[in-house]
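Journal club prep — side note

Before the paper discussion, L.F. wants everyone to see what a predicted structure for a comparable chain looks like in token form. Sequence:
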Amino acid sequence: MKRLLATAVIATLTLTAAGTANAGHRTDTKTLQRHADALLAQGAPGVLVEVDTPRGDVRVRSGYGDVDRRTPVPWQARFRIGSYTKTFVAATVLQLVGEGRLSLEDTVERWLPGVVSGNGNDGAKITVRQLLQHTSGLHNYVGSMPELFLEKEFPNVRTRTYRPEQLVALAMRQQPDFRPGERWNYSNTGYVLAGMVIERVTGHTWQHEVRERIVEPLGLRDTSLPGTSPWLPKPHATAYERFPEKGLEADPNDPRWGRAIDVTHYNPSWGGAAGDMISTTEDGNRFLKALLGGEVLRPAQLAEMTKTVAAPALDPAWPGARYGLGIMWVPSSCGGYWSHGGDIPGFKTRNGVTPDGARSVVVSINTDSMVARPGAPTPTKDVTADLVDHALCGLK
């Protein structure tokens, strides 16, 4: 596969009507393409990038969407966005807050009595804000699902449906990582609970509310909430996954990765409100720009969303990053940007949007288990950091 990837470099520039009107404007696609190509050496089968600027959209791609057929990632490819789902869910909760239907300071116990309890877990001491902010201290249930990270086990569970209550119950078997509000630690459990709160407040599933409040009003035609459906709508790239031989117990310095296998289709219910959505680069950009541009939330709620706390666990990938409510602030060469990526078997999503919502970028890679080629430079931060920085700061 690596030999095939080494020969694949495909690029294009696409201008919207606004960009066509500014035909004399030059965009540095060569540098953007170089950043996309560099991801192949880091283990990306294929890469799709779309930058949305006031003067037009810029798109590049590299590598293969299907390695065996040697075909590129489709320009309109649908892909699983993983934890980028959290931004949609947080925005939905904040809309409900703006309507006075709940408060960020409400406890989990108020809306979900008895759900967060046992082994030192206490929903009466955790607020909705802390769920969205990753300061609840709740253990991340994904760490209790080794079947998702072993090649021999994954085929047995790829069509299995997990209910939100089951996922939360996995976390309740563990003691909290810390007292609520004491520290920051990424936990999918908080967002599964946020989805359950949305359902309790509205009487509808979180998927219904996200669709009615965000997806449809913004015209995100290629964004979907699959629930328990294992299918990825066409067109799409093949999603590849390389499993470490020892799953979650693998040594990060010597994980002993297995072969790349096709994981395009699987039931994403184990991700739930923490990560089961599907979208495109175009829709992903549209949402980011609308969110920071004030189209999704009232000013008071957008201010709450962008009120950040220190998140030192993010420093290795995004030095100096801080976390708000379903979105993080990342320092950049031109000040900083808002972002929320996502990793889920078969796909890695990265993105960013300027504070004024004028410029955004979405990156899709058709694997989240990138194994660098021998001799490739070792990244000192997230593998897409330079690409995103250039998209938001270097493209004029």
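L.F.'s comment for the group: The chain has 13 helices and 16 strands. Keep this in mind when we get to the figures.
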